[in-house]
Amino acid sequence: MSCIAIVGAVSWNTLVLLDDLPAPTPHMQFARGDWQTLGGTSAGKSLALTALGRRVRLRARVGSDAAGARICAALDGAGIGLEDLVATRISERHLNLMTPRGERVSLYLSTPEPPANDALVDPGALFSDADAIVLDLSDEGLAAIPAARASGRPIWVDLHDWDGVQDFHRPFLDAAHAVLCSADRLDDTAAFLRSCVAGGVALAVCTSGAEGAIAIDASGELYTVPAAPVDVVDTNGAGDAFFAGVLDATLGGAAVQAALTAGALSAAAALRSRHLHPLLDDVLV
Question: What is the DSSP string of 141-157?
Answer without folding.
Answer: HHHHHHHHHHHT--EEE
